[in-house]
């Protein structure tokens, strides 16, 4: 299949892009790396009147530290992170996630902002950044607003983006020295989207943990106060205290009725817990 006809604009700066999006009144689509939008256009799952190509916007390619957190422009690619061209406040956690997204060709073009905006429940950044406690900044002609990743991804292929808004930047807090990180996923083949993701940022010294069960049919399950998954208390022995029954209940509550599916998700989350504790 080939896309339905569309007009194409490649704005020179962010304000021009925002003006084009505002003027289109919802009939335009942004293209960044094109790794998801390309196939969707070809399959005619989306038929925008206008494509606004933001891939030339220098403002969205910036990456740097600000007040102890990492601020990544939306156009930072997975390969930029994998190759260490951006600073790392997560002590290797993001680099490891980036290196295992799809194939190198996809990572060269696919962007962190595009991945979040597409809001595929199986996308790695959706789960990993939620576990890391990241926030996203959205910009429109009216100004900017910021929200946690778990508030931004509201369902399968559904985000909080409103007409005229663009993902401008992702803010990643520094990982505490005492915080452990675990990330596991199950894919049928290397390079394919995951059908289960488990991510955990646990800080026994601070008695806190963020746990994410991703690649379910809707937005990931994000547990920001995860003590109940560890017998009511997060401490150095969290690996032994991890309670698979609580994880199973969370999945049941999320509407996953199939026992085998729940078993896969719980096992993958357990792998993430073991990785964190290793
Ligand atoms: C073969 C293949 C395998 C893949 N496997 C994986 C995988 O294992 N894990 C994984 O996480 N991902 C995977 N991906 C997805 C890939 O990683 C890209 O991140 C993803 O396609 C989106 O990034 P993009 O920059 O290409 O966005 P695009 O395709 O350009 O855009 C995607 C969507 O986001 C919107 N958009 C883009 N940028 C912005 C912005 N700044 N603000 C607002 N809206 C925006 C677009 O309008 C569109 O709706 C795979 C892709 C392919 C083709």
Walkthrough of the structure:
The protein has 278 residues and is α+β, with helices and mostly antiparallel strands. It has three domains: 7-52, Uridine Diphospho-n-acetylenolpyruvylglucosamine Reductase, domain 2; 59-173, Uridine Diphospho-n-acetylenolpyruvylglucosamine Reductase, domain 3, CATH 3.30.465; 180-277, CO dehydrogenase flavoprotein, C-terminal domain (Enolase-like, domain 1, 2-Layer Sandwich). It contains eleven helices and 14 strands. The protein has helices at residues 14-24, 37-42, 78-82, 93-99, 104-109, 112-118, 124-131, 149-152, 238-241, 244-253, 259-277; strands at 7-9, 28-31, 50-53, 63-66, 69-73, 135-140, 143-148, 153-155, 158-159, 166-172, 180-186, 196-203, 208-214, 221-223. The chain has a five-stranded antiparallel sheet. A four-stranded antiparallel sheet has the order 11-12-13-14. The chain is globular. Flavin-adenine dinucleotide is lined by residues 29-37, 74, 101-102, 106, 109-111, 113-115, 117-118, 123-125, 161, 166-167, 193. InterPro entries: Diverse_Substr_Oxidored, FAD-bd_PCMH, FAD-bd_PCMH-like_sf, FAD-bd_PCMH_sub1, FAD-bd_PCMH_sub2, Mopterin_DH_FAD-bd. Pfam families: FAD_binding_5. Residues 1-177 form the FAD-binding PCMH-type domain. This is Carbon monoxide dehydrogenase. It comes from Bradyrhizobium niftali.
Architecture blueprint of SSEs:
Blueprint: E1 7-9, H1 14-24, E2 28-31, H2 37-42, E3 50-53, E4 63-66, E5 69-73, H3 78-82, H4 93-99, H5 104-109, H6 112-118, H7 124-131, E6 135-140, E7 143-148, H8 149-152, E8 153-155, E9 158-159, E10 166-172, E11 180-186, E12 196-203, E13 208-214, E14 221-223, H9 238-241, H10 244-253, H11 259-277
Parallel strand pairs: 1-3, 2-3
Antiparallel strand pairs: 4-5, 5-10, 6-7, 6-10, 8-9, 11-12, 12-13, 13-14
Helix pairs in contact: 10-11
The protein binds flavin-adenine dinucleotide.
């Amino acid at each position: 299949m080939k896309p339905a006809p569309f007009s194409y604009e490649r704005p020179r700066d962010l304000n021009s892009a925002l003006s084009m999006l505002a003027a289109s009144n919802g009939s335009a689509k942004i293209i960044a790396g094109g790794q998801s939008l390309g196939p969707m256009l070809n399959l005619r799952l989306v038929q925008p009147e206008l494509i606004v190509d933001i891939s030339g916007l220098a403002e969205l390619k910036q990456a740097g530290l600000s007040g102890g957190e990492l601020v990544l422009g939306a156009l930072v690619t997975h390969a930029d992170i994998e190759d260490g061209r951006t600073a790392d406040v997560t002590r290797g956690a993001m680099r490891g996630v980036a290196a295992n997204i799809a194939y190198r060709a996809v990572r060269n073009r696919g962007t962190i902002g595009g991945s979040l905006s597409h809001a595929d429940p199986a996308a790695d950044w959706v789960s990993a950044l939620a576990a890391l406690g990241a926030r996203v900044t959205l910009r429109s002609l009216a100004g900017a607003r910021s929200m946690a990743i778990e508030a931004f991804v509201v369902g399968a292929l559904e985000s909080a983006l409103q007409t005229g808004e663009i993902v401008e930047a992702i803010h990643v807090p520094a990982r505490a020295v005492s915080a452990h990180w675990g990330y596991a996923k199950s894919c049928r083949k290397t390079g394919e989207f995951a059908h289960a993701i488990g991510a955990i940022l646990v800080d026994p010294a601070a008695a806190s943990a963020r746990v994410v069960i991703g690649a379910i049919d809707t937005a990931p399950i994000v547990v920001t106060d995860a003590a109940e998954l560890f017998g009511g208390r997060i401490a150095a022995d969290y690996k032994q205290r991890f309670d698979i029954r609580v994880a199973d209940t969370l999945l049941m509550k999320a509407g996953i009725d199939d026992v085998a599916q729940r078993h896969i998700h719980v096992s993958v989350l357990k792998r993430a817990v073991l990785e964190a504790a290793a």
